Amino acid sequence: MMVSRSQDSSGWVELNFGPQHPSTHGVLRLKAKLDGEIIREVEPIIGYLHRNAEKICELDYYCDALIYFDRMDYVSAMNMEVGVPGGSGEAPWCATPPERAQWIRVIMAELNRIASHLVWAGTFGLDLGMLTPPFFYCFIEREKILNIFAEACGSRQETNYMSIGGGVYQDFNDKIIYMIEEFLSSFPKRLEEIYNIFVKNDIFISRTKGVGVLKREVALDYGVTGPMLRASGVEYDVRKAEPYLVYDKLNFDIPVSFKGDTLARFLVRFEEMRQSVKILKQAIKKIPDGPYFNPKAKKSLMTRLRGGEGEVYARTESPKGEFGVYLVGDGGVKPYRVHVRSPPMFKNLSVLPVLAKDQMIADLIAISGSIDLVFGEVDR
Predict the structure, then answer these.
(1) Nearest to 204 by CA among 305, 134, 253, 269
(2) At 66, which helix (H) or strand (E)?
(3) Does the predicted TM-score (pTM) go above 0.90?
(4) What count of other Cβ atoms lies within 10 Å of the Cβ of residue 89?
(5) What is the DSSP letter of 371?
(6) What confidence score (pLDDT) does residue 306 get?
(7) What is the rounded radius of gyration, in angstroms, for the C-alpha atoms of the chain?
(8) Among residues 305, 72, 81, 299, which one has the least CA distance to residue 169?
(9) DSSP category for residue 61
(10) For residues 158-167, b (16+ Cβ closer than 10 Å) or e, as one string?
């Protein structure tokens, strides 16, 4: 580990973990105070990757801002693009996307949810010393999703696929439909194989069960959302609480656990992937014919908020939690103010000192890994 040590007057050893370390999943620095091998205090230190994305968005046109959202949670670009305010009716914008475009957005968002959870599962296994089976198996399946994205928009990860108010920039063709159906036919079996590699490993269970317990009340106090919140017994998902796009026309369940530990967060995320498959199978059958783009919302410099002035806040369910975007318009073609509620990374990371207190130093990796950190959004 890349660490430095010092000793204070209490006899505790101060250990710096990161910011350059593979198990911090980005440039996270954890300053821990240890009593032997027990963590008494830990302080997450961020800011090493700050890119000022919100202020850059304020200097650019509305229609060009999506590329910066792609690069926040960069393994969930489709979900970041869905998060730009609007929901099903795109009420804040001058144009409304066609119904077909809304179904396409749901399909892409759920595919990206699976891809994001696969990245997390593979790297989480890697953190705990499980190299070949989980890591490579997860990335093999993720590769199939990225190939679908590449066929749809020409890009694998930072996609720039969705248009503000217009819909999507490229329709689904027969090849894309075929690739999605092929993925949905093979992935459930592969997902169970990956799942069993984890849960049938006694070392994995011993390193996650009862470790880093997040109590329901603490999760709510800290504003934790997403799989971490649901793993602590709170059945809250924006797709159900405030349905957007066409989620109210789809049948799916919200995975919940009441254990609140690292293992519970693992189990919730795997069940979320199963539910995403359930959503995708319904959506691919229900997707209607028609236009995929509203011609009134051509990608021009004239895109603006409806009415020109005002403010809007919209929330969506990203793979890591509740993702919110706040915009203020002053009548121009550029936003006056942009602010992002970074759910998973910033809010969820804030509870790490509570989860790690009085745990073994060896458990710090498992606990921080269960948060699913992507620092493009923390240090946006």
Answers:
(1) 134
(2) helix 66-70
(3) yes
(4) 12
(5) T
(6) 59
(7) 21
(8) 299
(9) -
(10) bbbbbbbbbb
With a pLDDT cut of 70, the percent of the chain lying above it is 90
pLDDT-derived band at 184, boundaries 50, 70, 90: very high
CATH topology of domain 53-341: Cytochrome-c3 Hydrogenase; chain B (1.10.645)
Q: H helices within 83-134, ranges in order?
A: 99-127
Listed in sequence order, the residues at least 6 apart from 64 whose beta carbon sits closer than 8 Å to its beta carbon are none
Would the CA dihedral through 194, 196, 200, 202 be positive or negative?
A: positive
Tokens 């959004």 found at? 377
Structure tokens at 63: 């229609």
Query: How far is CA 209 from its chain centroid?
Result: 23
Tokens coding 270: 């795997």
Residue 253 confidence (pLDDT) above 50: yes
Q: Which helix (H) or strand (E) holds 253?
A: none
What pLDDT shows up at residue 92? 59
With vertex at residue 187, the alpha carbon angle to CA 183 and CA 190, rounded to the nearest 5 degrees, is: 145
Which two three-digit tokens encode residue 256?
């919940």
| Rounded Cα–Cα distance for residues 239 and 113 (Å) | 13
Domain locations in the chain as residue ranges: 3-45, 53-341
